[in-house]
# Entry
Amino acid sequence: MKHLSKLPNIGTTIFSVMSALANKHNAINMSQGFPNFKSDQKLIDLVSQAMNSGYNQYAPMPGNIELRKAIANKMELLYKSTYNPETEITVTAGATQAIYTIISAFIRPKDEAIIFRPAYDCYEPAIEVNGGKTISIQLNAPDYKVNWEEVATHFSSKTKMIIINTPQNPSGSVFSKADMLALQKLTENTNCIVLSDEVYEHIIYDGLEHESACKFPDLKARSFITASFGKTFHNTGWKVGYCCAPKVLMDEFKKVHQFNVFSVNHPTQKALADYLKEPNNYLGLSAFYQTKRDLFLSLIKDSRFKFTPAKGTYFQVLDFSEITQESDIDFAKRLTIEHGLASIPLSVFNNNKKDDKVLRFCFAKTDDTLKKAAEIINNI
Ligand code: PMP
Ligand code: GLN
# Structure
């Protein structure tokens, strides 16, 4: 049988590659982004309670209504932004499914979608499998700042979508209010949809505030916001997330959602609905991870790696240019195999695999793991 691949240039995602290498060599795994500690026992107990009380059949297509109401309350509380839980919120199988579904609901062949690189790796394949064209704008280490005048030169009537991600994976940078206002101005009076990937909304440091797209009324009117409970409640394996958008956009989303997943794991939705009733369950997350970031950085401050502290996410980028001129991919592999510490090379997320000699380390790890990792880093 012969077939032409729809994604001829796509291999296996770097997260699977590096985690497999870490497992094979018994290395500390700071590559793929997941915590190595348990989520709150209360939340785990709520899932078994939900199973024992009968939440074991299909959830309603857009999600358990108690959970959608709890999400609406959170949006109101955090951003003073109103979303109708009946029509403007859908629970998804992780943010990944939300992102794929948004892109496939709106991108037609030849439509352009702008992304900022280094970019999380699920955007481009979803654009291309739907026949769209990815327009990449490269951001540069160490600040990864957007030049909105440059973005304007790539923006045209063909631009169907702009995908932003703040706090940003993999760079750990965040968009400021000025960035969001510039985006709002750029897209004003156009048909451009904004996909605002905000899975790290609760992980932002040094007193910075998360600038959600829903805080800017004109932006909100054209935006999907995607979020992930895996990131917020330390259970990436549950794969439950959600998206919010004005009804006219969400109606189109649901046309695809009902046929690519229909509905999402029900008992975890019920548990999350109950758990979200207590805002302290997510309000403390920034402080929790800032302590980890600061511990990790204080332990490696005298190493030969250079860094600018991450402003958000649980990823820290480290510059190894004073250590070796190897490619970041080779160095990441060698670190894993020879030194027992796995990370993610950033070039895989860049335009033309641009190599800035930086690696990404996930610090969502126990303090003990961070100390062991720091020892390895200090010996390089
Ligand atoms: N967007 C970004 C920026 C991510 O880092 C991730 C990975 N967690 C996702 C989306 C996907 O989230 P989920 O695991 O909920 O599918
Ligand atoms: N979001 C996680 C990361 O950035 C990975 C998720 C995945 O493996 N697809 O590491």
Summary: Residues 73 and 82 are 8 Å apart (CA to CA). The pocket of glutamine (ligand 2) is lined by residues 13, 15, 32-33, 169 (CB under 6 Å). The domain at 59-281 is CATH 3.40.640.10 (Aspartate Aminotransferase; domain 2). The chain is about 40% helix and 15% strand.
